[in-house]
Structure formats: structure tokens, C-alpha cells
Amino acid sequence: MKRRKFIQTAAAGVVIPTMIQGIPVNAYSNNSVLNALTNPTVDTDHVCVMIYLGGGNDGLNTIIPLDNYARLTAADARPNILIPQNEILRLNGVNNLGLHPSMTGFKTLFEEQKLNVIQSVGYPSPNFSHFRATDIWTSASDANQVVDTGWVGRYLNQEYPGFPNNYPNNDNPDPLAIQVGANLPLLFQGPNAQMSMNVSNTDIFGAWPQGINDTAPNTPFGKELSYIRTISRQSKTYADRLIAAFLRGTNLANYPTGNYLADTLKVIARIIKGGLKTRMYLVSIGGFDTHANQVDANKSQGAHATLLKNLTEAIFSFQRDLEAMSLDQRVLGMTFSEFGRRIKSNDSMGTDHGAAAPMFLFGKNVQSGIIGNNPQIPTTLTENDNIPMQYDFRSVYGSILKDWFCISQQATDQVLLRNFQNLPLIKNNCATVDIDQFNQKQEELNLVISPNPITHFGKITFNSAGGRTDIGIYDSLGRMIKNLYSGVMKSGEQTISIENENYKSGNYYVRVQQGDLQQTKLAQMISE
After folding, report:
1. CA quadruple 360, 365, 369, 370: dihedral positive or negative?
2. Could you say which of 176, 300, 513, 514 is the most buried, measured as most Cβ atoms within 10 Å of its Cβ?
3. What is the pLDDT of residues 453-464, one digit of tens each?
4. Helices (H), 186-250
């Protein structure tokens, strides 16, 4: 970009693209972003670090359901990619599932009660396009709804209603959100302006070995660097604050080498230690679109194994660094991906775009444990069969907003555009739901489908706890094909009739949600 255009863009108050050794750095001079730092609705020093697994992670090879392991070895399932049972990492106190053998860091965090596993996270009628699915996850929209703001952008805009005037200032100089090595702008788009700063590569920090006033080299790169520093000093933009925090901070833990995600998290730990008051961070690791060669001849090795190894080693080192710096009380981490993979593997030793997948939360203040049941694996599979959704991804977002950032339920509903169930993710803060009680109450729903398979008519029975109830039938692609009931239901045993309305023979799922509780069960249909 020419300098004249650069200055015109800065004066207009929009994103400033600059280049350092070919690396773009988007430092937002838009006063609207910094103004959001004044008079926050909720005063908190809590931080959330979001890790995007780009491409769609295969959940069934990430957390392996041991109670369905024999079914997964069948010829119509995934015998060519399934992790050998004797290599699966077993978790203390958990008998029915294990982790991919590359995930030793997660095994340690789980057994230290610093890891929360949420089973089968998705949304109704999932979209299998990378672009559209990513928009849905970042905007928190319904599948058939297009929203031009992101859920984080709406949250930050709500917390800082003074946005967008008269900033930066001495009291509020820091960005609300930072993307490091990631690029999901919709996630941070507020109603009026973009709310994040984008640092495209951690190499940017090498440009300031001593500070922003150290002598730049007498090279074309040095001249551009001097220019960027001058703009930074004159405008007091985010770049000043970010680099200053980096220089003040330090790291106390060892990180793995040759691991880009680890390098990125290492920088984030350092700038948090350096005093930056940013609340939300986004980082990413790509490569999860494993249509082919997901595994090697040794099925516990290969592309997916390397990704999970890099992911968990980076997170483990980051957590150890936070602990060594006494920052672990303040930081929560979360992984997410735009979708999962199909149950059935393909002939290329890979998996195709699917529906639901697990999410992970990590940190000192997570309620450690497993939320939800292992996915059911039907006795007969086709290439269309998916893991059914147990939990809507917006339930995870809402629970973080309410229980980590301590905003009200009403405010949470406004950010996420409607109400979603609360999940037991956070402890020792604003949370009121205990994970063990939550899981017990879910099991007490005791959803039963009979007969199963259903040829003409059937029924579902369950133990209602009373209150708002939604019951639907979903097909193997995760699409709701029939709303059986929506309304208020009394407590006690309830029965709802099901009719096979000439449905194509195959695997379907009945999902009952009642308040914060849900159960999802396989229902097979047979057409005549």
C-alpha cells in the first residue's frame, strides 16, 4: 500500500494494513474499538483464548467411544482409520472413552481437573460448506439465517456502550480483542465497527528486539519499520500497547519447538503477563480437513495425529506457563471447529465433512469432566450418517458469557439472539450448575423409543422435570424433519406418539430438550 493511501485510511478510522517482512499487521486506529474500553458493564479481568481448529475436526478419532469401539471396527464404519484400542489413552475414573494417543497433554490436564470435554456439539440442520459453516459458528446464527455481526463483537459492543468515540485515551489504551495468526473477522464484527486487532504472524515481535525506539536497520525493511513506528507513536494505536506489553512480559515455561500454535500461545501468555487488558484472543491451527491420508499405515500416526499432538502440546505448555506466572486464575481456553466428520470413513483413509464434534475447555476454573454421552453408532451405516448434535454450540458460548464473564442471562440472550441451555463449564465464579448434578439429571430424563425400529407407529417416553420442552426428529444429516412438541410440559412420565410418515429407511434421532437438560437417542425407521 502507498503511504498516501495508508494515511488516508488511517484518517478515515478503518483498518490500517502494513507490512513487515511481508507480514501484514492490521492495527486498528478506529477510535470506536478503544472507546469500548470505557465504563464496562461488567468489571472483570477474565480472559478467554479461543483456538480455532480450521477444517473440521474428526471427533471420533479425538475422543474414542470405547463402549462402541467394536461397532466402529465394522466394515461399514471406519476400520481403515480407527485408532488401535490398546493405544488409546485411558482417563482415570472414565471407563467408556479415551483420547487419541497423541493427546498426552490433555490426559494430564483432565486428571489434574483442568479440562472439560463437551460431547457432540453442533446445531440443527448443519451446513457442510467450510465458508458458510464458519460464518454460522462465528456469528452464532441459525443455519438458515445470515447475520453480519459476530457473537464476540456483539458481546463487546454490549459491554462497552460508549463505542465508538474519543479513543484511545490514557485510561483505556488496550484493544478489546486480538487475533494472532488467525483471520475470522466476522467473529469480532460489532454493530458499528470491527472490534479486534489482527496480528497475522508472531514474527512481528522480532521487529522490536529492544523496544519501539531501537535503531532500525538502514535497509528498505528498516525504512518501512521506522515509518510504522512513527505512525504508531503519533497515533497511539494498538501496536504501541501490544509491543510494550510484549517487552514487559516474559515466559516461564518451556514450549515445544517447530509448533506454530505453541509459538502463538507463548506470545499471548507473555503479553497477558505484560499487563495487556485484552479480554478475547483468537488463534488458529489449520489442516483438519482430513479427506485423505488422515492416518498412516500405523493408524495412531499421520496427519491427524500430528495436528492433535501440536494442539495439545501447545495448550499444555500454555497452561503451565500461566500457572508459573500466577495467571491461570484469569485465563480460560476453548477449542472449536466449523464442523466434525462423518461416522463412516472413506476409501482414501480419511473422513468427509460431518455434523457434531467435541469441544474442549481448559484452565484452572473449568468444571473438569465430560458433558454428554458417547455418540451412538448405528448397526448399519451409510456415507450420510453423522454424529447427532447433543449440545448447541451457542450453549457453550452462552455459558462462557454468563459464568466466566458474569453477564446477565438477559444480556447473554441478546448477544446470542435468543435463549440457549446453560452448561456446567465454569467453577468458583458465577456458575450455579454442578457438572455431576447436571449429568445425573440428564440421565434421569430416561428417554426411551419403542418399538425401535419403527415401521408405522411408535412412541417415546421420558421422565419430565416440567417446564419448556422441545422434541424433534432429526435425520442422519442433522436436519430436523419433524417437530413433535414445543411448549410447557408438566412433570412426571410423559408419552409422545411418533408416526413413520413414509420416511426413507435409515437412521434418525429423537432429541428432547427440557430447560437446561437434553437427551438424544437413535431411532431407526423402516419403510415398506
Report:
1. negative
2. 176
3. 999 999 999 999
4. 220-235, 238-248
